[in-house]
Specification:
alpha/beta, D-Maltodextrin-Binding Protein, domain 2, 18 helices, Bact_solute-bd_prot1, SBP, 2 domains, signal, 9 strands, 4-stranded mixed sheet, globular, 3-stranded antiparallel sheet, ABC-type glycerol-3-phosphate transport system substrate-binding protein
C-alpha cells in the first residue's frame, strides 16, 4: 500500500514516505569504530532520492546539510539504497545495508527474529525519544520483552471513509458513521435507496482487493497468516463472514452499484464524484479525494473501522527506521539523532512544526489531517496546538475517527509475502462481487492452498 506507506504493501498513500524499488548502494555501511578526526562519528543513511527525482533529492540533501551543521560531530554518508522486498534479504546477508534505512511495518518482527537489526532500547532511553513515542505504535518494532529494534516514523490505520453529503441526503446522521458491519450494511442500503448511488464500495484490483479483504477479516476477528508467516489462516469463519457481508450488500441489498473493479486511485475518483457513500481507507486519503479529485471538504468524513462481533482492531501500516546490527553505541546514538531530525522534528520542535505547516499552506496542501500519531498523546496534542493557526481542513469531520482511533487495537499487515498474499486474494473478492452464486468456502480454500505454496518456498 506506499505511494509511499498506505500502499506500504498494497496501495501506497501519498502522505507517508516509504519508498519502493531498489537503487544500488553507492558505498558500504560504516564500520564499528569509524570516527574521523576529533571523535567524529560517520554513519551511512539510506533513502536518498535518485538523480531522476531532483526536487526530492535536493530537499533530502538540504536536510542532510542542516543536520550536519547542527551536529558537527556527526558525518552523514547518504546513499540511494531503499527497501525492496525482492532484494532486502540478499543485501542484509551481504552486509550491504546502510546504517539507517526505512522499511515498512510488515518487516520489523521478522528482522528481530532473524537478528538482523540493532537493539535501540538503551540509545532511545538515553536520547529521551523513547518516552516521546506512541506506545501503541511502538509495539510494531518491539520484541516480546519490550526491547525496541525499530522506530516508527509514519503510520496509518484503516477507518471508514464516508460522504457526509450522501449521508444527509439519505437521512443518516453524518456525525455518526456505522460502528459495526451490520450497520454498514443497513446504511449502505439506505444510501442506495434514497440517493441512487452505491452505498458502499470496495477496492478489488492490483492487490488492493487482498489488502482490504485482510482489513475486513481483522474487523471480523480473523487473521490472514499465522504469527510465523508460514501458513494461511483465512480459510475460516471470520473470513467467510466478511465475504458474505460483501456478497449480501452486492446481491441481496443491491447497495454496491454495478462497478466493482476498483483500484486505489479509481475508488477515490468515484468517491469524489459522489458515486460511493462509504469505503475503507485511511484519513490521509483526504489529500487525494479533496485536493486531487475535487470533493468538497465539507463532504469528507471518516470514522474508525467498523467491527463485527467484538472489538478486534484494524489494519495498520507505515514505515519504521531500522539501524544496522553492526553499529557501535556511538553510531546508534548518531543514528537516532538523524532519525529524529529527519522524520520527527516537527512533532518535538515548535519551529519545525510551524515551518512545516506554513510550507503546507503555501503549497496549497492540507495541513492538520488527523491520523495515527507515532508520538505519545501529550506530545501530539502539543504539536496540534503549534500548528492550529495553519490548519486548513475541517477537523470536526474527522472527529468520529480521532475519538476512537488512538485507542483502537492496530494489527500489522501479513508478516510474510504480503503482496503475493494480496494478489492471491484479489480474485476471491472479485468473484464474490461478480458472481451471485460464488462458493465462498471453496474460493477461500483454493486461495489458502495458493498462499501456503508461496509461504512454503
Amino acid at each position: 500500500m506506499t505511494t509511499t506507506a498506505i500502499r506500504s504493501t498494497a496501495a501506497l498513500s501519498a502522505s507517508l514516505t516509504l519508498l519502493a524499488g531498489l537503487v544500488a548502494c553507492s558505498s558500504a555501511p560504516s564500520t564499528a569504530g569509524d570516527s574521523g578526526s576529533g571523535g567524529q562519528v560517520t554513519i551511512t543513511v539510506g533513502d536518498r532520492p535518485s538523480s531522476a527525482d531532483p526536487t526530492n533529492r535536493a530537499q533530502f540533501d538540504k536536510k542532510v546539510a542542516d543536520f550536519q551543521q547542527a551536529n558537527p560531530d556527526i558525518k552523514l554518508n547518504p546513499v540511494e539504497t531503499i527497501w525492496d522486498a525482492t532484494t532486502f534479504q540478499a543485501q542484509a546477508a551481504g552486509g550491504q545495508l546502510p546504517d539507517v534505512l526505512s522499511v515498512p511495518f510488515t518487516e520489523p518482527q521478522g528482522m528481530i527474529a532473524r537478528k538482523q537489526v540493532a537493539d535501540l532500547t538503551k540509545a532511545l532511553k538515553d536520547d529521551g525519544l523513547l518516552a516521546e513515542l506512541n506506545p501503541n505504535v511502538l509495539k510494531i518494532g518491539q520484541d516480546q520483552a519490550g526491547n525496541v529494534y525499530a522506530i516508527p516514523t509514519a503510520a496509518y490505520s484503516i477507518g471508514l471513509i464516508y460522504n457526509r453529503e450522501l449521508f444527509t441526503k439519505a437521512g443518516l446522521d453524518p456525525d455518526k458513521p456505522p460502528a459495526t458491519w451490520d450497520e454498514v450494511r443497513a446504511d449502505a442500503k439506505q444510501i442506495a435507496a434514497k440517493t441512487g448511488q452505491a452505498g458502499y464500495g470496495q477496492m478489488t484490483t492490483t492487490n488492493t482487493g487482498g489488502w482490504m479483504f485482510t482489513t475486513q477479516t481483522y474487523a471480523f476477528g480473523g487473521t490472514v497468516e499465522n504469527a510465523e508467516g508460514t501458513k494461511a489462516t483465512f480459510d475460516d469463519a471470520p473470513s467467510r463472514a466478511a465475504l458474505q457481508a460483501l456478497h449480501d450488500m452486492k446481491w441481496v441489498d443491491k447497495s454496491m452499484g454495478q462497478a466493482v473493479l476498483y483500484d486505489y486511485d479509481g475508488i477515490q475518483k468515484a468517491f469524489a464524484a459522489g458515486k460511493i457513500g462509504m469505503y475503507m481507507g485511511a484519513p490521509d486519503m483526504y489529500r487525494s479525494v479533496v485536493v486531487t479529485n475535487g470533493l468538497k471538504p465539507a463532504s469528507f468524513g471518516v470514522g474508525p473501522l467498523p467491527q463485527q462481533g467484538g472489538d478486534h482492531g484494524t489494519l495498520t501500516g507505515g514505515s519504521v527506521q531500522i539501524v544496522s546490527k553492526t553499529t557501535t553505541d556511538a553510531e546508534k546514538a548518531a543514528a537516532i539523532k538523524w532519525i529524529k531530525f529527519a522524520n520527527l522534528n516537527k512533532y518535538v520542535t515548535q519551529d519545525a512544526a510551524v515551518t512545516s505547516a506554513k510550507n503546507g499552506v503555501a503549497a496549497k496542501q492540507p495541513v492538520g489531517v488527523p491520523g495515527l500519531p507515532v508520538i505519545a498523546a501529550d506530545k501530539y496534542a502539543t504539536y496540534q496546538s503549534w500548528i492550529k493557526p495553519y490548519v486548513n481542513v475541517p477537523l470536526d469531520n474527522f472527529a468520529p475517527y480521532t475519538k476512537v482511533a488512538a485507542e483502537q487495537k492496530i494489527i500489522p499487515e501479513p508478516p510474510v509475502k504480503a503482496q503475493e498474499v494480496y494478489a492471491a486474494l484479489d480474485p476471491v473478492v472479485q468473484t464474490v462481487l461478480g458472481n451471485a452464486k460464488a462458493d465462498i468456502p471453496a474460493l477461500l480454500t483454493k486461495a489458502a492452498a495458493t498462499v501456503n505454496a508461496k509461504l512454503g518456498r
